[in-house]
Amino acid sequence: MTMEPVAKTGEVAAIPEPVDVPEQVVDLSARENYFNRELSHLQFNYRVLQQALDETHPLLNRLIFCCIFSSNMDEFFEIRVAGLRQQMKYGREMVGPDGMLPEQVLAEISRVAHEYIREQYDILNKVLIPEMEKQDIHFVRRRDWTPAQAEWVRQYFEDEILPVVNPIGLDPSHPFPRLVNKSLNFIVELDGKDAFGRETGMAIVPAPRSLPRLVRLPDDVCDGGENLVFLSSMIHAHADELFPGMEIMGCYQFRLTRNADLELEDDLEDLASALRGELLSRRFGDGVRLEVADNCPDELVQFLLRQFGLTERDLYQVHGPVNLTRLMAVSGLVNRPDLTYPGFSPSLPRQIRNKELIFDAIRKQPILLLHPYESFTPVVDFLRQAAKDPHVLAIRQTLYRTGADSEIVEALMDAARRGKEVTAVIELRARFDEAENLELASRLQESGVVVVYGVVGYKTHAKMILIVRREEGRLKRYVHMGTGNYHAGNARLYTDYSFLSADDALGDDVNKLFQQLTGMGKALKIKKLFHAPFTLHKRLIEMIDREAGLGESGRIIFKFNALTDPDVMLALYRASQAGVAIDLIIRGICCLRPGVPGLSENIRVRSIVGRFLEHARVYYFGNNDRPEVYCSSADAMVRNLVNRVEVAFPVEDRDLVTRLKEDLDAGLRDNCQSWVLQADGSYLQNQPSPGEERFAAQLTLLDRLTGK
Predict the structure, then answer these.
(1) Closest Cα to residue 576, out of 584, 566, 565?
(2) What residues does each domain of the chain span?
(3) Fewer Cβ neighbours under 10 Å: the N or C end of the chain?
(4) DSSP 3-state assignment of 677?
């Protein structure tokens, strides 16, 4: 297996054989041993962007990867960049293990982000659009409109756009408007006087958020193919109709990204009411980034920067639409299934295919599902059957992201209406889902569900369901725990594990965790689960240290979305120094530096980016050939291990342990959709060696579990 250089040239060596070297003291906490969190985050976004160039993905999915990069960058600026700016604004500068100050990080973010975004628009303009043209999919520019198309656009503008657009001339009585976060806007240069004799020279036109950013031209005004026109093109073409009698000297797109993080005090009396108030302000937080069309005159650019209190570092001049996320609509506007991934039917485990009651199957053997390859339906059926089963007395569930109209929610409401004791612990502060979760809480309460908002100061991120059923004169507990959210849509896009069990000890543990979440009292003794903020952090480090005690016989495989916790990284460094073979499959942020002699030469880090978003968290410990495996809702981040309610649950069934190890090994074998982190911080994409077959972990699992 060879490496294709992306950031820097080089090769990744296998774990070397032990050699005798003079003992040297290595400062494990030295800042050069760690990568910056935000810059590592940017690198993940770049790996997503590179999928747009991977011709093994269908063309429209490559376009979607380009759009996902935009969406990821939006959130990065709204939360991460905004957070750094807030630290500087209020004099609360924080330094991570890498030792970089916020000002240094912001400067490097600006340099790297400008480079990545320039490359994104090059990929769109020079690669994706030409390839779509070859497939007869056209973005029809104003200069290329035929008379029939121009007439259709004129009519569309008058019927659909003009009635809802609200141009704002700038003068002493019309100050610069307060623009909504990430909205599409136009700055217009005007010449002449209006009906009142005003001569302002400038106006702002906010594009109506209710209108689509892409519109499909009807076939009868085209010569075949799929023909799309941008809303921005239509507004540009008819801007003069917004300012009758004025001459339009120029019309240019721009878009402002604002701070969208929410800040809530810990001593709130009413979390829901406080959150509703904060949500109103999210749309108008401080500006953090200005995107402007690259043909906009400099004097207008400088005017906008002054209006938003931004500098050249925050300016991104782009050659194309200022919001590429909206191009995701293309796959829904064109009828080209040949240019997207073929559909597949998630499989069902054999043990539940013919069972009338899922409880019967779970009693015989625990069930492990890997979504999206295996269906999310058993999780929904678990609740549906519980709602209707007269033997079920109580249901308790945590909800982080689910959607107000989900089948999960309907099942909980049905159970409450049937007189069962139903409790939902809803995390209102699930980022960007806060409004939906407030609505969800109201719906559940109206149906009779007892709704609890978790613990103020600790996000409830654990994924748990507890069902209490009367069987043969005694109460039996059934549990579901998972690495992902109770969201059927996410379960088709994210790779996550679901675990269904009737183990009495697990049932007792989950019951105690719900007691802690809904009631008051000291932390209860838990038998099998590790749970944050109480035991997970400590036990994870203890188990790493236990493997370190085995020396070269030790084995650790972790699968995370992110690794930033300093204590976990220190423990992994100690284990590496002891000779433990360590493989980390980390989709996104990794602050640990692998491959450093005397420190981390036994640690390898890889990131898998493919059709599905890698989201599962798995902790594998070799334990002297008696493997112990945990799945978890928690990444190795301080926020997860210390500041949230999280759960790691053991998978003890030998067959399931073997299956989990096979899944992890598939990730470690991937030689085409995996990227290996180098000691210098760059990532190199794996490529098959000459004569070696391609091995993509996601495609292998898709074939193994669905036959597709």
Answers:
(1) 584
(2) 43-339, 350-518, 530-706
(3) C
(4) strand
CA-closest candidate to residue 437, choices 411, 408, 399, 389 = 399
> In DSSP terms, which residues pair with 423 in a beta bridge?
396, 450
Across the beta sheet with 226-230, the strand order is: 137-139, 226-230, 214-216
Q: Do 43-339 and 530-706 agree at the fold level?
A: no
The per-residue pLDDT for 267 is 43
**What pTM, to 2 d.p., does this model score?**
0.90
Catalytic residue among 461, 480, 487, 531: 461
Distance CA 35, CA 33 (A): 7
Q: How far apart are the first and last CA of the chain?
A: 25
Tens-digit pLDDT profile for residues 577-598: 999 999 999 999 999 999 999 9
Distance from C-alpha of 377 to C-alpha of 549, rounded to nearest angstrom = 43
431 is in an annotated binding site: yes
Q: Any binding-site annotation on 640? A: no
Q: How far apart are CA 411 and CA 443, in angstroms?
A: 12
Residue 319 bears catalytic tag: no
Taking CA atoms, 138 is separated from 225, 329, 330, 687, in Å, by: 8, 14, 10, 33
Yes or no: domain 43-339 corresponds to CATH 3.40.50.720 = no
Query: Is residue 671 part of an annotated ligand binding site?
Result: no
Q: Of all residues in the chain, what percent carry a pLDDT higher than 90?
A: 76
Q: Residue 169: what are its φ and ψ, rounded to 5°?
A: -75, 140
The band of 441, judged by pLDDT with boundaries at 50, 70 and 90, is: confident
Whether residue 288 contacts residue 257, with contact meaning beta carbons closer than 8 Å, is answered with yes
CATH topology for 350-518 is: Endonuclease; Chain A (3.30.870)
Query: Helix (H, G, I), strand (E, B), or coil: what is residue 291?
Result: strand
Q: Is 494 flagged in the annotation as binding? A: yes
Report pLDDT for 18.
44
Q: Is 587 flagged in the annotation as binding?
A: yes
The pLDDT of 147-166, averaged and rounded, is 95
Query: In this structure, are residues 683 and 675 in contact, taking their beta carbons and an 8 Å threshold?
Result: yes
Comparing 50-64, 122-136, 399-413, 532-546, the range with the smallest average pLDDT is 399-413
Residue in 303, 323, 281 with CA at minimum distance from that of residue 180:
281
Residue that wins the pLDDT comparison between 2 and 342? 342
CATH topology of domain 530-706: Endonuclease; Chain A (3.30.870)
